Amino acid sequence: MAITLFKHKKHKIGLIILLVLIGIVLILAFIVNQYWSPILAKRVKSVVYTSSGGLYTIDFSDAKLHILRGELDIYNITLKPNTAVYNQRLKAHLAPNNLVELHVKRLIIYHMHPFMLYFQHRLEVGRIVLSQPELNVSYQQNHLKDTVTKDHRSIYQKISGSLKSIHIGDIILGDVRLKYQDYSGNKLAISELKEMNLSATDLLIDSASQTDKSRVMYCRDIVAELNNYAGQSRNGLYKYKIKSLRLSTKTSRLDIQGLDLNPVRPDVFFKNSERDRFYVHLDTLRIDNFDYKGYHKYRVINASHMTLSGGVLNLSGNPKFTQRTTDRTHTYPNFGLKEIRTDINIDTIDEKNINISYTEFNHKSDQTGTITFNNTSGRVLNVTTNKEALAKNNICTINLTSYFMNRGKLDAQFTFNLTDESLPYTYKGSIGPMDLTVLNPAVMTLGLIKVNTGQLTRFDFDIQADNSVSKGKVALLYNNLKLTVLKADTINDKLKHMTIASLFANVMVLKHNNPDSPGEIPRSFYVIYERPRDYPFFKNIWHTLLTGIKPCVGLDEKVQQDVKNKIADMAIKKQERQIKKEQRKQRRAERKLKRELKKQQKEQAELNQG
Fold first, then answer.
1. Burial of 427 from C-beta contacts in 10 A (0-12 / 13-18 / 19+)
2. 411 inside domain
3. Do both 210 and 310 map to the same domain?
4. Do 275 and 342 fall into the same domain?
5. Which of 532, 555, 578 is where one domain is finished?
6. pLDDT digits over 528-538, tens only?
């Protein structure tokens, strides 16, 4: 077959030409590889040094060009900051907040056009893939806004002397190992990320793109992805983890899936902290129009919209006895927001399908009670610590819809003053119809009462408060309310009925309906409640509302005092009756003893006579 193929002269000539071309290509590839590495190294080093103003240098050990595949392999790349230049800029207050160091074992450039680079001074690349890059980033807050330098030229203007343009289709960094060192706090904080991927598309540096504001770092889009990230708070009381995170510069959107904040065991937590204990889980968290540049440079959190979807928030009050001198205003949302040492400005936060619970320990019952707000959705407006934003609007507003104890529909609105030192806030709303017996898991341990029967028609509240006093109106409309009064049985670790007190409350004190009769004006109460200094935010709200609920069911202060006095009188009378009973019993015993003695004396006398 081979003899037949090459029996004609023209076939032999064609074969010879093909072999000659292959030889020329191989020789050319050898020559290019001999001279390409020095040329490429010189160009790359020049571009990096010039574009960074001498702050960064780059080096690599070897480069191999495959002409037929249009592929370039570069080995052992190192990008490092020049510490001498950084220190000079630091003294001149021009140093950046972030310093980067990059190590790459192998970089592959696909669809490279070396002749275009050499003859036309244009760097044209289809794709760049970095294998197992190691990225070290250190952050130190040297300034709070962009510094002004003497050199106002763009990167393109700086490199235009050696290159007319740079265009790269895709840049892919897979399995990035990132070490992040944050020097901005009181002590060094180090984070290490492993399952991280970075990609950039359509990087273009030329005369037109230098003014294109739709690009970030001259790229059409940069995407960062992080999987299975976990860490621990600085105080060691919380562990956090993220299932996945994705940030796109093109959409300015940050998406987080599976966010968890887990505290340590309650005994360990409350032994080491006097703060309330949180557990948080979110199915998804999304931030729109996220200013990633501001966060990267200055740790500024600026966004137009945040969405929290599907999750759980459990809050447990600290069960310790606290001194009355300990003011727990740090639990107020407006106080806590001010204490965050970060510039935050979020216009709108939407919550969807969040289950919220608050657990408190009652020292009288020696047990905990839990209040739940199920399937909570709502909107928060103007969450900010930014001074300019606060000057325009210092009120944060929260509108919520929830199901109290998973039954009664709750509609509520909160407002918080974010600048006033007295921490003013308001809350108003209503709870719709529900069976009051569902409150027993909370009121039995927290209020030492049990609801036997009762139907809520409507509960309305409108409160104005600050860090010292709460004032407002409370109205509770209900039917057929009957209660049992409880007290703690410390020996058997349970609650037991106070029969007489319960009978007295239901017959003599308690109003079983509000209004008492159809068509009458329902009872309501104007609350004035002074917050004990050691009461946290949620506990203060609960006791403020409870102060208004009691008069609505017939337990105003006068009645409560009368009840206490009557119960005390009943207890005294009971004790007196018990004493009298014991005295009568003792007298009967004494008379019986005397009779026995007389009988014995008589028997003894008869025995003596005999």
1. buried
2. yes
3. no
4. yes
5. 555
6. 999 998 888 98
The secondary structure element, H or E, covering residue 478 is strand 469-489
The residue among 83, 87, 74 whose CA lies nearest residue 101 is 83
Q: Which domain holds residue 183?
A: 25-232
Whole-angstrom distance, CA of residue 48 vs CA of residue 54: 8
Domain assignment present for residue 587? The answer is no
- The number of folded domains in the chain is 2
**390 and 513 inside one domain:** yes
Name the residue with tokens 């509520």. Answer: 412
Statement to judge: residues 225 and 237 lie in one domain: no
Distance of CA 11 to the CA centre of its chain: 76
Contact 114, 36 (CB under 8 A): yes
* Residues 339, 553: Cα–Cα separation, whole Å: 40
The CB-based long-range contact list for 375-378 (8 Å cut-off, 24+ gap) reads 375/402, 375/403, 375/406, 376/351, 376/400, 376/401, 376/402, 376/403, 377/350, 377/351, 377/352, 377/353, 377/401, 377/402, 378/350, 378/351, 378/402
Element (H, E) at 360: strand 344-362
pLDDT (0 to 100) of residue 531: 93
430-458 residue pLDDT tens: 999 999 999 888 888 877 778 888 999 99
User: Do 262 and 180 lie in a common domain?
Assistant: no
- Count CA within 13 A, CB hemisphere, residue 188: 6
pTM to 2 decimal places: 0.76
| pLDDT tens digits along 66-106 | 766 667 788 888 888 888 888 888 888 888 888 888 888 88
